[in-house]
Amino acid sequence: MSMIAAFYSGKSILITGATGFMGKVLMEKLFRTSPDLKVIYILVRPKAGQTTQQRVFQILNSKLFEKVKEICPNVHEKIRAIYADLNQNDFAISKEDMQELLSCTNIVFHCAATVRFDDHLRHAVQLNVTATQQLLLMASQMPKLEAFIHISTAFSNCNLTHIDEVIYPCSVEPKKIIDSMEWLDDAIIDEITPKLIGDRPNIYTYTKALGEMVVQQESENLNIAIIRPSIVGATWQEPFPGWVDNLNGPSGLIIAAGKGFLRSIRATPMAVADLIPVDTVVNLTLAVGWYTAVHRPKSTLIYHCTSGNLNPCNWREMGFQVLATFEKVPFERAFRRPNADFTTNTITSQYWNAVSHRAPAIIYDFYLRLTGRKPRMTKVMNRLLKTVSMLEYFVNRSWEWSTYNTEMLMSELSPEDQRVFNFDVRQLNWLEYIENYVLGVKKYLLKEDMAGIPEAKQHLKRLRNIHYLFNTALLLIAWRLLIARSQMARNVWFFIVSFCYKFLSYFRASSTLKV
Ligand SMILES: CCCCCCCCCCCCCCCCCCCCCCCCCCCCCC(=O)SCCNC(=O)CCNC(=O)[C@H](O)C(C)(C)COP(=O)(O)OP(=O)(O)OC[C@H]1O[C@@H](n2cnc3c(N)ncnc32)[C@H](O)[C@@H]1OP(=O)(O)O
Ligand SMILES: NC(=O)C1=CN([C@@H]2O[C@H](COP(=O)(O)OP(=O)(O)OC[C@H]3O[C@@H](n4cnc5c(N)ncnc54)[C@H](OP(=O)(O)O)[C@@H]3O)[C@@H](O)[C@H]2O)C=CC1
């Protein structure tokens, strides 16, 4: 019997960010392994015209929850969706709901965050810092609370190259930042933002670092742990391989590459691609929840959930495997044939952006205009290149994260728990994982049918022929222009033509002699 699964039985668990990528997988695993848990409270806001209840209904009826519904048929009764908006005071939770949460919660998993790199500082501070502080305040009023697990990111200190499982202080106290957000206007915030984030690449990593400081400062009477995952990717094994539901991290780039929009990137091929499957993060999170509650470590432990030091894979290997999978299972209606050029040089990268990305988009828009349609490709390409430029920081560096606490925890687990809550990334076969990831992107993000693969292959063949035809025409035009303008080019041309003529005459003569 799994001790971790048994621990969660009968428990009341509060999850923030349950409608997000990681939150859904966390809920799924909890219900699947501990169907006897008492209740999962989730803080949900209405979104995109859906009420909180409709959002929960949609999640429970998704493919991700198919197994859960077999194991735990009354799963609907065990989810309590609480209307909440983490941007508002007291999260806009009703008095009754708040009372229930405070008196019943045993474990808190805080996953909610804004993960956008370009969010406004005020909003990112509100969600990643102030909301964390408020949730900790709530937690301190929960008499039955056994553990509070905060999800941060391995990149909260990405300005360092070696990162230990400790909290590194930011130059300005989070409390001062929170206070200043209340009275500074947007223009001043915009002005001071670059100074505050310093040598971090974006507001996201900075506010996540502030969030960790808040956790440390408010942790006195609480039993807290922090998990720091690196780049979270599709599921490795559970509930099935390749599940993914948003464009963050590599997923969006895999689509862009598979559809032939993105054909080159400024990236360091040998840099470590520190991807970590979402189910691995969730298994570690649940194991940490159990360990923190049962063993009550004296200080706040930080757990790195990374792959680089235990089972490294670099971007080149990853890129090759992604491309190899496109050969087997191409995406439908590609714009161009998928290709991968990576360069570490900014000028070369700009050249490829012009030749491989912008020029085809302009030509295609010209074709759309000619055929009476609205041009759109240049706009799509500009947005894609903006996204890529924001992700480039992470594919041009390698980090070293120490994983003592994570390895310690692994050794504390029973063999059964090591199996059921496996977070040993050494067992991961990257080639297999990447193949399943690309397949998952095709099935669950693009919603493409496998039956369409032969047609997609045909389409790629047509694109290859167009590509050859286009390049040959371009070469001929360039050569024709050159010999029209340059004596030297004409001389070379006459030399080649007369050489070919002589060679053919010689060949014909020698074959006539043999006869
Ligand atoms: C050696 C290199 C190997 C590769 C081979 C090189 C060859 C290159 C070509 C071939 C590639 C082949 C293989 C590719 C292999 C994988 C390469 C993977 C690179 C992975 C890099 C990952 C780096 C992640 C770093 C994470 C660090 C921190 C981790 C975390 O803690 S949190 C999670 C990370 N957060 C995010 O990822 C959020 C990022 N997104 C944003 O901040 C915003 O979306 C935005 C980028 C600022 C854009 O904002 P906008 O306001 O403009 O609009 P919106 O958000 O509405 O989106 C606009 C349109 O863009 C689409 N989109 C969004 N995100 C992505 C994305 N990640 N990739 C692609 N497209 C994206 C979105 O759908 C919109 O589209 P539209 O609706 O059509 O307009
Ligand atoms: N994905 C990754 O690569 C990595 C993620 N992380 C961390 O993991 C955690 C989960 O990330 P992930 O699941 O990928 O992120 P998602 O963007 O998929 O999910 C974010 C969650 O936060 C919720 N949320 C955001 N704003 C509010 C709000 N105002 N009120 C209530 N809920 C809100 C979202 O709700 P809604 O659905 O309503 O928008 C959603 O449920 C985050 O803390 C992130 O920093 C760490 C490393 C890497």
From TrEMBL:
Catalytic activity: hexadecanoyl-CoA + 2 NADPH + 2 H(+) = hexadecan-1-ol + 2 NADP(+) + CoA; tetracosanoyl-CoA + 2 NADPH + 2 H(+) = tetracosan-1-ol + 2 NADP(+) + CoA; octadecanoyl-CoA + 2 NADPH + 2 H(+) = octadecan-1-ol + 2 NADP(+) + CoA; a very long-chain fatty acyl-CoA + 2 NADPH + 2 H(+) = a very long-chain primary fatty alcohol + 2 NADP(+) + CoA
Pfam families membership: NAD_binding_4, Sterile
Cellular component GO terms, alphabetical: peroxisomal membrane
Domain Thioester reductase (TE) as annotated: residue spans: 15-284
GO molecular-function terms, A-Z: alcohol-forming long-chain fatty acyl-CoA reductase activity; alcohol-forming very long-chain fatty acyl-CoA reductase activity
Domain named Fatty acyl-CoA reductase C-terminal: residues: 357-448
Family label: Belongs to the fatty acyl-CoA reductase family.
Name this polypeptide is given: Fatty acyl-CoA reductase
Organism of origin: Neomonachus schauinslandi
